[in-house]
Amino acid sequence: MTAGHREVPHTADLRIEAWAPTAEECLAEAGRALVDAFADVSGAPRERTAVRGLAGGNEEALLALLDEIIYVLDAAGEVPVDVEVSRDRQLSLHLTAFANAVQVGATPKAATLQDLEFTADGGLHRCAATVDI
Amino acid sequence: MHYVQESPYRFRVDRRGRMRVPGKVFATSQLMRAPGADEPLEQVANVAALPGIVRASYAMPDVHWGYGFPIGGVAATDVDRGGVVSPGGVGFDISCGVRLLASELSTADFRSRANAIMDRIAAAIPRGAGKGAVREVDAHELEELLRRGSRHVVEAGDGDQRDLDRCEDRGAVDDVDVAQVSSRARERGLQQVGSLGSGNHFAEVQAVAEIRDEAAAAAFGLRQDQVCVMIHCGSRGLGHQVCTDHVRTMDRTAAERGIDVPDRQLSCAPVESPEGRAYLGAMNAAANYGRANRQVLARAASRALRQVTGAELELVYDISHNLAKIEQHEVDGRTLRLCVHRKGATRALPPGHPELPADLSAAGQPVLIPGSMGTGSYVLAGVRPGDAFHSTCHGAGRAMSRHQAQRRVDAKQLRRDLENDRISVRAGSARGLAEETPEAYKDVSEVVAAAEGAGLCRVVARLRPLGVVKG
Q1: Which residues does chain B have with pLDDT short of 50?
Q2: Among A1-15, A71-85, B350-364, which is the least confidently predicted range?
Q3: Which of A12, A29, A58, B183 is the Cys-Cys partner for A5 at CB 3.0 to 4.6 Å?
Q4: What Cα–Cα distance (Å) separates residue B4 from each residue in B7, B59, B388, B453?
Q5: What CA–CA distances, in Å, run from B444 to A126, A128, B33?
Q6: Is domain A4-132 in CATH 3.55.10.10, yes or no?
Q7: What does pLDDT average to over chain A?
Q8: Per-residue pLDDT tens digits for A37-74
Q9: B129:A130 CB<8 A
Q10: Segment 391-430 of chain B within 8 Å of chain A by CB
C-alpha cells in the first residue's frame, strides 16, 4: 500500500487519517490531509519554506506538525502547498499566502489529544488525529 | 449506555466503574433516543471520574460529542478539597459566546433596504482565515485587552457604559495572569481582534418574532418585530492556543500527580496547583480577549447599520458558553468554593442574584441561544431555583457530522432555500455553508423546551433570522 490520506466523518470537527511506508512520510501525509480539509492549493505558488525540527516520539511529532500548520495559518496567513518530513525529522512547510488558495472548508484551530493514533504494522505506518475547527 | 428516566425532562446515569458521582441529563425521551445520543453519555460518565467533582456530571438538552467533555456538559469540582480544573472542560474556544444587539428598526424597515444592509454588515465583519480584523493592535494593546477585555475597548472610545453593564462580568473577568499566555497564542491573537472566524460562528440580522415574557423582554430592551443583530464567536486563535498549551502541560503532569483520566483530552490539575492556577490565569485572559472581540465586532456592525439606515445598535446582553468560573454554591448543606466548568452550556442566574445588575435583577440573567443557520434563536432567562449550578443549554447542538452535511446538502440549493424564506445569505465558502445546514442540528425549539421543562430557564423571546453572515 502506498502513501495516502483521507478525512473521515466526525460530529463537530475534523478527523484525518494518513498512511505511508515510513513514519516520516506518514507525518507528511497527515499534514497534507489537514490542508486538503480546508484549502485547495492546486496551482498556488510556493513562496517560502519554513523548517523546524519535530522532537519526541511519533505522536508528539504529529501534534507538533499539525500545530505548526495551524500556527502559520493564523499568525502569518499562509498555507502549505506541500509538506515534507525528512528522515532526521526536519519538517518543511512549503508555504503560499492563504489568499492564493481557495478555501473549501472551515479552517483548523487546534490539534486535540482525543483518539490520537500512530501505529506501525507490516511496514505500513498509520496515524489519525482529531482537529478542532 | 444504561440510564433511568427520573421525570419527563430528567434522566440519570447511575455510578459505575470510575464514576465518583452520577450523570444527570436534561432532555426529552425523543432527544435521548436520537441517533448518536449515546456517545455523549459515555463522555458524561468519563467527566464523572474527575477528581473533586461534586453532585453530578450534567448534560444539557443540546449535548453532543466533544473532546473529553461533551459539548453541553457542566461539572463542578470542590476547589478546597483537591478539585481539578480541566481545559477540556472549557473547550478550545474559550469564552465563545453570544452577543445580542437591538435596533429601533422594524422588519419592514429592514426589508426595504435588506441587500444594502447585508452587504454593508458583511463587508464590516472580517471572517474566514487570513481575512484580517476590524482593529489593529500592537503587543501593548493586546496585553491591555487580555487584562481588561471590553473595558479597554470602551475606554479607548469604541463603546459606552451600557456595553459593560450588559456584558457578563461587566466586560472583563479578573484573576488574569498574562504571563501564562504563550508568545504563540499572542501572535495568533494579534491580527484577529474583531473577526468572526469560521465553523458555526455567525453574525445574523434577526427580528423579534414572539415575546413570551413581556416584563423580562422590556427589561432586556426587546419588543415585538424589532430588528436585532446576534453575533456568535469567541477568542479565535488565541483562545485555542491557550487551551492547546495548557492541555499539553497537564497531559504531561497528570501522571506525576497520580491523576488518571479515561480520555487524554480530559487532562486536568488541581485548581490549587501551579498548573491549575496557570491555566485559569491564561483562560481568564483569553475570556477577556473573546469579550473584546465581540465588542469590536458589535461596534463594526452598528456602524454598518448606521451608514445604511441611520439606526444604532444597543447591547441587549453578552454571555459566554465556554468557561470555568470559581463560584460559591451550597452542596449538601455546606457552602463550597467550586470550579464550575460550562462547556457548551450557559450560566443562567435566577432573579435576585447579587451578581446581576439592578435593571436585570427582577427578570434574571439573559441567556442567548443561537439556533442553527436559518432557524430561530431564543432569549431565555435564569429561574429560581434552577439546577446544575445555575446553568442551561447553549444552542441547537450538532446532530450530523460536517462530512455527512456536505454529502447530503447542495450549498447552492441551501442558499436558494434560505433566500426563498427571505433570509439573505453572505457566506465565506460553499462548503462552509453546507456544513452548517440546519438539518445538521437538533431542533433548537425542542432543546429550549426541554431546558425550560427541566426547570433550568424560561423563554423570554424567540427571534427569527432575516439575514446571515457566515464565516
Answers
A1: none
A2: A1-15
A3: A29
A4: 9, 14, 18, 17
A5: 39, 33, 16
A6: yes
A7: 94
A8: 999 999 999 999 999 999 999 999 999 999 999 999 99
A9: no
A10: 398, 400-404, 428-429
For residue B185, the distance in angstroms to the closest alpha carbon of chain A comes to 9
- Enter the ipTM: 0.94
In this prediction, residue B66 carries a pLDDT of 87
A74:B237 CB<8 A: yes
Give every strand in the sheet of A78-85, ordered side by side: A48-53, A90-97, A78-85
Which pTM value belongs to this model?
0.96
pLDDT score recorded for residue B131: 65
Best to test chain B binding among A107, A116, A118 (most B CBs inside 10 Å)? A107
DSSP string, chain A: ---EEEEE--SSSEEEEEEESSHHHHHHHHHHHHHHHHEE-TT----EEEEEE--SSHHHHHHHHHHHHHHHHHHH-EEEEEEEE-TT-EEEEEEEEGGGSEE-SPPP-EE--TT-EEEEETTEEEEEEEEE-
Question: CA torsion angle for B284, A111, A89, A3 (degrees, to 10)?
Answer: -170
- Amino acid B400: pLDDT: 81
* Cross-chain Cβ contact B67/A130 below 8 Å: yes
Judge whether residue A11 has pLDDT over 80: no
The grid coordinates of residue B138 equal 500592537
Radius of gyration of chain B (CA): 21
Phi and psi for B326 in degrees, rounded to 5? -85, 115
Looking at chain B from residue 162 to 191, which residues have their Cβ under 8 Å from any Cβ of chain A? Answer: 184, 187-188, 190-191
Judging contacts by C-beta atoms under 8 Å, the chain A residues touching residue B43 are none
A113 vs B: CB within 8 A: yes
| CA B279/CA B286 separation, integer angstroms | 10
Query: Which H or E run contains B319?
Result: strand B314-320
Interface subset of A 50-109, CB within 8 angstroms of B: 63, 67, 70-71, 73-75, 77-78, 97-99, 103-107, 109
Closest CA to A28 of A37, A18, A38: A18
